[in-house]
Amino acid sequence: MKHLKASIIILLAIAILSIPLPVLAANKIVYNNLNLSGEDFSGQQLIEAEFGKTKLNEADFSNSDMRGAVISSSSAYNANFHGVDFSFGITYLVDLNGSDLTDANFSQTIMKRTKFKDVDITGADFTEAILDGPEVKRLCTTASGVNSVTGVATRESLECP
C-alpha cells in the first residue's frame, strides 16, 4: 500500500510539473494581420507585444512600454514612437519612414531590414542596437540630442563619426 501511495504521488508530481506554466504568455499581446493604422496605444504597457504583418501607419505609441516587443513584416510610417521604451525589442522588415522616434529608447534592439527615411531621432538612444549599415549612415546625418531617460547622446549611441 505504501508503494502504491508513493507511486501515485510521484505520478501526480510528474503530471503537474509537465504542464506548461504560461506565466508570460498569459500577458502577451499578439496582433497579426491587422490594420491598426491611426490607433492610439500611447502610454500603454505593451511589454513583449507582437505585431506581425500589421499596418501601424500613423499609430500613436508615444510613451509606451514596449520592452522586448516584436514588430515584423509591418508598416509603421508616420507613426509616433516619442518616448517609447523599445529596449531589447526586435523590428524586422519594418517601414518606419516619416516616424517620430524622438527621445525613444532602442538600446539593445535588433532593427534589421528596417527603413528609417525621414524619421526624427532627436534624443533617441540606440546603444548596442543592431541596425543595417546604410541605415546607420542615414540616421547619422541628422542624429542629435540626448535621451532624457538614459542620458545618452543619439550620435554616441549610433557610433556616428
Task: Outline the fold blueprint.
Elements: H1 2-18, E1 30-32, E2 50-52, E3 70-75, E4 90-95, E5 110-115, E6 130-131, H2 133-140, H3 154-157
Parallel strand pairs: 1-2, 2-3, 3-4, 4-5, 5-6
Overview of this protein structure:
The protein is an alpha/beta fold. It has a single domain, classed as Pectate Lyase C-like (3 Solenoid). The protein is built from 3 helices and 6 strands, in the order αββββββαα. The protein has helices spanning 2-18, 133-140, 154-157; strands at 30-32, 50-52, 70-75, 90-95, 110-115, 130-131. The protein has a 6-stranded parallel sheet with strand order 1-2-3-4-5-6. It is globular, with a radius of gyration of 21 Å. The termini are far apart.
Structural key phrases:
3 helices, Pectate Lyase C-like, 161 residues, 6-stranded parallel β-sheet, 6 strands, alpha/beta, 16% strand, globular
- CATH class reads Mainly Beta
Cα(first) to Cα(last) distance is: 77 Å
- CATH superfamily grouping: E3 ubiquitin-protein ligase SopA
Query: Number of DSSP strands?
Result: 6
Quick description:
With 161 residues, this protein is α/β, with parallel strands linked by helices.
